[in-house]
Amino acid sequence: MKKILIFLLAAICYVQPYQAQNVEFNIDEINIDYERFVLPNGLTLLVHEDHKAPIVAVNVWYHVGSKNEKKGKSGFAHLFEHLMFNGSENYDDDYFQVIERIGGTDVNGTTNSDRTNYFQNVPVSALDQVLFLESDRMGHLLGVVDQELLDEQRGVVQNEKRQGENQPYGQQRNYLTKAMYPEGHPYSWTVIGEMEDLNAASLEDVQEWFKSYYGAANAVIAIAGDVNPEEIHKKVLAYFGDIPAGQTIGRQEVNIPVHNGDTYQVYEDRVPETRVLFAWNTPPFGHKEDLHFDLISAILSSGKNSRLYKKLVYEDQIVSNVFAYQASSEIASTFVSFANVKPGEDAKEVEKKLLAEIDKFIENGPTEAELKRVKAEYFARFIKGLERIGGFGGVSDILASNETYHEDASYYKKQLKFIEEATAADLKATAKKWLTRGKHTLIANPFPEYTVTESKIDRSKLPPLGTPKTAKFPEVQRAQLSNGMNIVLAKREGVSTIVMDLMFDAGYKTDYLAIPGTASLAMNLMDEGTKDMNSLQINEKLQLLGANLYSNSDLDISRVGMNTLKQSLDESLNLFADVIMNPDFPQKEFDRLKSEQMNDIKREKSQPVAMALRVINKYLYGEDHPYSNPATGTGYEDTVEKLTRADVQKFYETWIKPNNATLVITGDVEMSELKSKLEKSLGKMKKGDVPTITYAKPKTGAKNTLYLMNRPESQQSVIIGSYLTEKYGDVSEVALEQMVNVLGGEFTSRINMNLREDKHWAYGAFGFVMDAKQERPFVVYAPVQTDKTSESILELRKELSEFVSTRPVTQAELDKVKNNQILALPGQWETNSAVNNSLYNLVKYDLPDDYYQSYDSNIRNLSLKDIEEVSTKMVKPNEVNWFMVGDRAKIADKLDQLGFDSIIEIDADGNMLTPPIKTPEKDEVKN
Q1: CB 523 within 8 A of CB 590
Q2: If phi over 0 gives left and psi between -120 and 50 gives alpha, with beta otherwise, what is residue 724?
Q3: CB–CB of 63/218 below 8 Å?
Q4: Do 321 and 276 meet the contact criterion of CB atoms below 8 Å apart?
Q5: How far is it, in rounded angstroms, from Cα 305 to Cα 310?
Q6: Residue 646: how many other CB atoms lie within 10 Å
């Protein structure tokens, strides 16, 4: 389980730790049952049984990453990962296409410095097809890889690199990599590589890479879910047994550079704040002291009681963000700590104080209370991860990573033991040893001999799908407390987590009756102190309970949520109720979070997509509509500056009432027991009148207008086309979902296949309908390379126009998205959080209680006529307004030739900088 543990932070003043009942964790009871098989060709198979849902996770790890590349060939491991998704010799079709058709979810491939993995969750009935596809691309790939495919995916990867580097701090990884590892070290280049190296990749390189590293003996397959190990062993042997072991691979030795002396580097990038960063070379992944650094980083920066957060964010208030983390890798790791300097503060002072806090830890080590807290947090996080069978951090991921890196799938037990046994003296010694000097160790082992077995698999066609199992959504139970608060419960037995969200009919729309930014700030303050506990005490109690608590808003709903463990439910509910019923809104916390919200607005104005989201509602709804404020909810700098603590208290007193609330909860709890507990706590909230919000008719005004935001030196242009459509429920939402999936909602949608796969002008381009209870924006979205800006707009226009004219949805397209949706349902509700999210939607949009039980049949019954009807109502090519963020100097000339009725330049708050520019008449437009 390769990790970079970065913890979300917030903090207030230091007080005596709150004394809460600690949850005891017995790590000897933490266990992942599995069976291990090694095929005659060296392929390692790990199988874990989990029958809670009729799904299976297939996770294939190859022990090869960017560190196996040669100098001048950087980025090749990641480029090859992309090639693996474009068909194989016996099934020459896009991998995402077939996985979507068989109901796959959580499907992806990733590359890091040490390994490449491919994973997907599918219904059990589709397992044979996945094994066929995975074995076919492991053993039968090169016949379909030609120059055209290589060039296509090279363009996709290069756009991915541009998109990453176009973000604030996007260049940080490049500088840090080269600074920490000397030239020639396997980690001295980034995983995504250099542009010139990607351009130099040849077909010969592809063939050599496949032959060198994609043999069976260099792979681990972890399969988890509703399966039987012996049956899986037989299937895997049948599908993979004839694949050669591959070439003998010499593993690279542990190579931790000694970073003698201090080095210093300054660079410039388009960022909202100065960032001060320190890094040290440290032990490799899985080493005892590597685990020590996980605890050290948590003590320094995880939670509101962390040292760096208390000192720099809360007490001194000179930084807006501070982190520490252990970036663990196979032959060497890096310990990193960085802080973002608040505008107006001295970067040199931040540098001095950040280093001073780390030096204090090196000198004195942690307290017992700190160690106890972060250990509890570590074990709770690990236990929660075991709920998922696939994806990042799920059971199959844990088994595959431990087997790949340590040749022991249960090595995680040793890591947990390292955490359990770590003492304050150990952490002090580790910090003093590694944060002042480096160390090098060398280990080499021979490889065994391998053979292959005869295959009887017919590779001329895919194996048939098995009988699909029906998706199971829990029965929805309802109750009401005496004060009018509604309770909606989905009981799920045998799952250790309990998830709850208390929903209030409020959200950003209430800023229409107040000051823009109020709802966001008020909900952020909800957990910053009660009448009896301050923020630090709340946070410490949450860590000891193994719980997470959050409060936020979206456009229509404000909520307070909690994810906790069944064993700590009673105390978690008491804390949950106290936060909701007794918020204190301390003045110091108000001042701090108000300042942070101001900084958030500044950051949004520097990020291309956020810049567009800040202005789109203003021009779609008109300024006198409750939805007209920035879609991010943060408000404007001048409005947030005016906010007072009284405004926040007024929001709470106006909207946070039990008769304006519904608690949705998922977990192993009885409704009668739950209602009794809640009646004694949340049942004491006093109900009262709640204002009614009136929605004026949206005043979109112009059509075919381009609103342009200038962002000099941008490597990409962010294009958003949008217009308002019907309210939720005014059309068939099931039909709308599938229509959107065909047009722009899935990887294989028309828009993404056009701009990414066919043109490779974008890393990703999509279409969707934004969430709202009233009229909703329909959006097409594409961040594209700057020199293809105007061409991309023409392609988006074409896709929208042809969708309701010459190229309507076909039966084949409908069948594909329908089947994917139906077959994906068993995995959609794997976790309690996922189930609770569906409950959230059920309540938000007033859906019937059996909505998700009947969802399967409603999709199956969709006809092409249903899709055509909803397309006619929802896709309106002639009503689109366009929003663009890019380098005006590089794109302006061609924009005049696109036939816009007018082009208006606006700032990041949506204010017009120039009067509308009337473009040439359409019959004068140049080709």
Answers
A1: no
A2: beta
A3: yes
A4: no
A5: 6
A6: 10
- Give the C-alpha separation, 577 to 406, whole Å: 45
CA atoms of 895 and 590, how far apart (whole Å): 45
Place of tokens 């005496």: 482
Selection from 629, 800, 794 nearest residue 706 by Cα: 794
- What pTM was computed for the model? 0.83
Q: Which amino acid is at 485?
A: M
How big is the chain by its Cα radius of gyration, in Å? Answer: 28
Q: Are strands 766-769 and 705-710 parallel, antiparallel or unpaired?
A: unpaired
Other residues' Cβ atoms within 10 Å of the Cβ of residue 192: 22
Q: How far apart are CA 51 and CA 357, in angstroms?
A: 48
Nearest 5°: the CA angle 404, 96, 121 is 50
Residue 434 to residue 209: CA distance in whole angstroms: 36
- Answer positive or negative: Cα dihedral of 244, 248, 250, 251: positive
Give CA–CA dist 352/312, Å, rounded: 11
In sequence order, what are the beta bridge partners of 327? 4, 334
Separation CA 699–CA 826 (nearest Å) = 42
Q: Is the dihedral of CA 690, 696, 702, 703 positive or negative?
A: positive
Query: CB count, 10 Å around CB of 72?
Result: 11
Helices (H), 686-760: 733-740, 750-752
Measured between alpha carbons, how far is 500 from 664 in angstroms, rounded to an integer? 6
H or E element at residue 480: strand 476-480
Compute how many other C-beta atoms are within 10 angstroms of the C-beta atom of residue 676. 11
Considering Cα of 451, then 457, then 459, then 463, what sign does the dihedral take?
Answer: negative
Euclidean distance between CA atoms 522 and 513, whole angstroms: 14
pLDDT, averaged per 10 consecutive residues of the chain (927 residues), comes to 30 30 72 95 96 93 92 84 88 87 88 94 93 94 84 80 75 78 88 82 85 93 96 96 90 85 75 85 95 96 91 90 92 90 85 90 95 92 90 92 95 95 96 77 46 85 79 90 96 91 97 96 95 92 93 96 93 95 95 94 91 92 92 95 96 97 96 94 94 87 88 92 90 93 94 94 94 93 94 96 96 91 83 93 92 87 94 94 94 90 91 64 37
Tell me the C-alpha distance between 392 and 390, whole Å: 7
Q: Which residue is it, tokens 């988890």?
A: 224
How is the chain split among helix, strand and coil, in percent rounded to 5?
45, 15, 40
* Structure-token pair, residue 194: 């250099």
- 534 - beta bridge partners? 529
* Matching residue, tokens 């003492």: 423
List the one residue out of 639, 810, 605 whose CA is nearest residue 711.
605
The amino acid occupying position 327 is: A
Q: Residue 333 forms beta bridges with which residues?
A: 282
Q: Which of 64, 51, 191 is nearest to 115 (CA)?
A: 64
- Give the largest CA-CA distance in the chain: 79
**CA distance linking residue 77 with residue 110, whole number of Å:** 10
The order of strands in the sheet holding 55-62 is: 35-38, 44-49, 219-225, 55-62, 116-123, 105-111
Q: SS in 3 state form for 633-699?
A: CCCCHHHHHHCCHHHHHHHHHHHCCHHHEEEEEEECCCHHHHHHHHHCCHHHCCCCCCCCCCCCCCC
DSSP 8-state symbol, 512: G
Query: Alpha-carbon distance 273 to 341, whole Å?
Result: 6
Structure tokens at 801: 């126009």
753 to each of 107, 147, 149, 742, 757, how far by Cα in Å?
17, 19, 14, 11, 5
Our measurement of the distance from residue 886's CA atom to the centroid of its chain's CA atoms, rounded to an integer in Å, reads: 25
Query: What is the token pair recorded at 135?
Result: 């074995």
CA distance 897 to 64: 48
CA pair distance 634, 515, nearest whole angstrom: 11
- CA dist., res. 841 & res. 836, Å (int): 9
